[in-house]
Amino acid sequence: MKKLLCRYGGLLTLTFLGPTPNTYAGAEGAMFIGSSAFTLVTATDTSDRNPEFHQFNLGLRLTPKDSLSLEKISWRYYAPLGIPYGSAKSSKAEEYPGSVRSDGLGLAYQRFSDGGFYSALHALPLDQTFLDQNGNKIGTGKQLFLTLRFGYHFGKRFFLEPSIAFTHWPVNEGLPASFQAKEDQWPKYFLFEPGLHFGVNL
């Protein structure tokens, strides 16, 4: 996955980068659309652990330095999200006895500082469906997924935003007992998650 991210990151950089990085300021009231490079990774992942990640953003430039956007996001995951980087992150022993499908509509606020740097807060309520190893539904639940993101904005009309994020899910309800047993072994946060968003100002 890291190789794919690097590949798409390079491609998007060549495609979207404008001649100057400090052109993040859009006209007040302007709209923009976007997505995440993880969506592109999903399209090329042929493994049995495809994250099935999809994202679509629709945003509004409130001021030249402030934006608000709706984020439609869905994904599938196979192990607790709080497993930190290391050998356990890819260990099948840490996986659920099945998988979780999540789908939600969230809100993100983005604030730019001088030079193209930005910070963002995301709140994403998710409906979750729990599946056994045969793909059969065994329960439903709710999750509130919060993200604090720091990044940099490149480009003019077409833009690219590499970032690093800190995530936390204070609400995570309805897990089957076998899933909860795995979940309880790990924290309800994940640190230093890389991100790569891209989009176009309309």
Topology overview:
Layout: H1 2-16, E1 31-36, H2 37-44, E2 54-63, E3 66-77, E4 98-112, E5 117-132, E6 137-152, E7 154-155, E8 158-173, H3 177-183, E9 189-201
Antiparallel strand pairs: 1-2, 1-9, 2-3, 3-4, 4-5, 5-6, 6-8, 7-8, 8-9
In short:
The chain has 202 residues and is mainly β.
What can you tell me about this protein's structure?
This is Outer membrane protein beta-barrel domain-containing protein. It comes from Candidatus Lambdaproteobacteria bacterium RIFOXYD2_FULL_56_26. The protein has 202 residues and is mainly beta. The chain has one domain: Porin. 15% of the residues lie in helices and 52% in strands. The protein is built from three helices and nine strands. It has helices spanning 2-16, 37-44, 177-183, and strands at 31-36, 54-63, 66-77, 98-112, 117-132, 137-152, 154-155, 158-173, 189-201. It has an eight-stranded antiparallel barrel with strand order 1-2-3-4-5-6-8-9. A hairpin with a 4-residue loop joins strand 4 (98-112) and strand 5. Helix 1 (2-16) packs across helix 2. The radius of gyration is 18 Å and the shape is elongated. The two termini are 31 Å apart.
